[in-house]
Write a structure and sequence with these properties.
Blueprint: H1 4-10, H2 35-48, H3 52-60, H4 66-73, H5 82-89, H6 92-104, H7 106-116, H8 120-131, E1 140-141, H9 142-152, H10 157-174, E2 182-183, H11 196-202, H12 218-231, E3 241-246, E4 263-264, H13 265-270, E5 273-274, E6 284-289, E7 298-301, H14 303-309, H15 315-334
Antiparallel strand pairs: 1-2, 3-5, 3-7, 4-6, 6-7
Helix pairs in contact: 5-15, 6-8, 6-15, 7-12, 8-15, 9-10, 10-11, 14-15
């Protein structure tokens, strides 16, 4: 089994602790007599067969985190144009460390590619964008984050209540310590930043040790990212994204919120897009706004591109993953590694 700590030591990256040393760092607690907490416990106990006293016992150990609420309520920053967004992820350091990660885990990545049909560069790029190859995975206790959002953040309480239940079930199924596991302020965990429901549904045991460990096993991490892609309709060997330009005198308004295949290659040409593709005209595509420093830009995504948006619902995110993947792959193959 490949551990995250030993693997990253080779690339001179320090992995943050996946679990906290202490189980409670403050003095505040949730009031277990609150009506919403009692309702949650009763519903979770009835639907999942968890003893109510066990649920109360865990919630009693959770610590409310006002900073998490502040982060959730913080006004969204002005959306960066694509060319600025790209710069944040396509840095020399991120590419260099991605190449090193691939070299260190070549055998594992090639095996996963054969088994699940997801090219190594996309697995590496997801990890690079999400957590800098496992280096930045979050330092909030997952229990604190999910309890805070489930009980003190009404706008998304139903979602995070379900995630809290999934986390408690996960702790039983996979031996994750619910009192010490660390993650993001939203409760995402491990190198691939899976939410508890995704962890339970999509994580796989890549090293055959009987556990799905996204905290300490690169085998499980890589296999789980690939499985997530395949479960969201990734097409092995299929195209992801191609460049396009507008014919002279033509303009096109695109919605950056669209994440669906709403066009075809034929309709894209009819709208004035110029691109190189030998695929059939009826191939379904998504037209993606890709602003340049000099003005509007557009790219054409295929089904595999929309699969990447299922990891994070943003076309800019998906383009960043794709471009990082292609850049890392080019470096690896150029070196003949």
């Amino acid at each position: 089994m490949r551990t995250l700590t030993t693997a990253l030591a080779v690339t001179c990256l320090a992995l943050p602790a996946a679990h906290a040393d202490g189980v409670f760092g403050g003095t505040d607690r949730f009031d277990l007599a609150r009506a919403d907490i009692r309702q949650y416990v009763e519903a979770a106990a009835a639907s999942e067969g968890i003893a109510a006293e066990d649920l109360y016992g865990l919630i009693a150990r959770a610590e409310p985190k006002p900073k998490i609420i502040e982060a959730m309520q913080r006004p969204a920053e002005k959306v960066s144009p694509w060319w600025e967004y790209r710069k944040r992820f396509l840095t020399a350091q991120r590419v260099r460390e991605g190449v090193a990660f691939w070299q260190q885990h070549r055998e594992l990545l090639e095996r996963i590619a054969k088994e699940r049909g997801v090219a190594p560069e996309y697995i590496v790029a997801i990890l690079g964008v999400e957590t800098y190859y496992g280096r930045i995975t979050g330092n909030y206790r997952v229990l604190d984050a999910l309890a805070t959002l489930a009980f003190d953040y009404p706008p998304r309480a139903p979602f995070f209540s379900k995630e809290l239940t999934n986390f408690l079930l996960l702790s039983r199924e996979e031996g994750v310590d619910p009192l010490t596991a660390l993650g993001s302020y939203a409760g995402a965990m491990g190198a691939p930043q899976f939410m508890p429901s995704s962890y339970r549904r999509y994580a796989v045991d890549g090293d055959g040790d009987g556990r799905r460990d996204l905290f300490a096993s690169w085998d499980d991490v890589a296999a789980s990212v690939a499985n997530y892609f395949r479960e969201h309709d990734w097409q092995p060997g299929g195209p992801v994204l191609i460049e396009a330009s507008m014919a002279e005198g033509r303009t096109l308004e695109l919605d950056p919120r669209n994440l669906s295949l709403t066009d075809t290659l034929a309709s894209a040409r009819e709208k004035g897009l110029v691109f190189d593709s030998s695929l059939p005209g009826e191939t379904m595509v998504i037209l993606v706004p890709a602003e340049t420093e000099h003005g509007p830009g557009v790219r054409i995504g295929f089904a595999n591109f929309t699969t990447i948006t299922r990891y994070n619902r943003s076309v800019r995110y998906a383009m960043a993953v794709h471009d990082l993947a292609q850049t890392i792959a080019a470096e690896v193959f150029e070196k003949g590694e």
